[in-house]
Amino acid sequence: MTSENKARGGYIQRDRGWHPPAYAPTYKTSITRSPQKPLLSLSTTLSEETGPVFDDSILGPRDNDLLHNYAADGASAIGPRIVVYGQVCEQSGRGVPGALVEVWQANAGGRYRHKKESYLAPLDPNFGGCGRCLTDAQGNYEFRSVLPGAYPWPNGVNDWRPSHIHFSVFGQSFAQRLITQMYFEGDPLIWKCPIVNSIPSQEAIENLIARLDMNATIPMDSLAYRFDITLRGRRQTYFENRREGL
């Protein structure tokens, strides 16, 4: 432990019961994705630990505006407009500045823009479905978008994914990347989703649900949802790719 960590009180041990097992039979793809052999710990390379450096120079003026960053001039994405905002925090609750937050999602009809998409909902020609921003000095971030639609997926006979947005959070290097999903308050499909139900803790699931914030809405324009992300500790956000957090 470094002197800096000692000054901050050290790392808070994570709750291992907070995350789902790698093998969850009702989530079919986990059967083939779960490890079949003992895990290996691999050393990171220097480039993974030191690069890249994220700053405002990598961002375009509309990178955090999914309503317009793929749209033709004068056009906008179709669907209920939303604002998604929150704070990226460390284990003690302090905001993390300069973190690169990336998002990707389906359009309002529940369809992604990629070649292997099999759902028949129409594409929106003015919606690309991805964006990014940097957290400010207090760790805050904000996006504008449309409410993503639910969609069926070939897991069970009639399984549907609830409305959700994928999040990727980078620290100071490629090796510091965390991936999670955000859901929306009041969506009944959350509690019917096999992916969500692989998480053993209801409290952990609830931490993935963005809360409707009527005080942050844009009148006659957009509803607002707040989603805070905690990087590690006993009550860290559930991350798909790294259970221990950053």
Written description of the protein model:
This protein is mainly beta. The chain has one domain (63-246): Aromatic compound dioxygenase (Protocatechuate 3,4-Dioxygenase, subunit A), CATH 2.60.130. It is built from 4 helices and 11 strands, in the order H-H-H-E-E-E-E-E-E-E-E-H-E-E-E. The chain has helices spanning 3-7, 29-33, 46-50, 202-206, and strands at residues 81-89, 100-105, 130-134, 140-146, 151-152, 160-161, 164-170, 177-184, 209-212, 223-226, 229-230. Strands 1, 2, 3, 4, 7, 8, 9, 10 and 11 form a 9-stranded mixed β-sheet that branches. Strands 5-6 form a two-stranded antiparallel sheet. Strand 7 (164-170) and strand 8 (177-184) form a beta hairpin. The two termini are 15 Å apart.
Largest β-sheet summary: 9 strands, mixed
Q: Beta-strand level of the residues, as a percent range? A: 15-25%
CATH superfamily: Aromatic compound dioxygenase
Distance between the termini: 15 Å
Q: What is the N-to-C order of secondary-structure elements (H for helix, E for strand)?
A: HHHEEEEEEEEHEEE
Q: Estimate nothing, just give the exact number of structural domains.
A: 1
Q: Can you give the mean pLDDT?
A: 88
Assembly state: single chain
The helix-and-strand class reads mainly beta
Helix fraction, binned, reads under 10%
User: Could you please say which CATH topology applies here?
Assistant: Protocatechuate 3,4-Dioxygenase, subunit A
Radius of gyration: 19 Å
Number of helices: 4
Low-pLDDT sequence parts:
1-8
Number of strands: 11
Task: State the CATH architecture.
Answer: Sandwich
Shape category: globular
Q: What is the CATH class name?
A: Mainly Beta
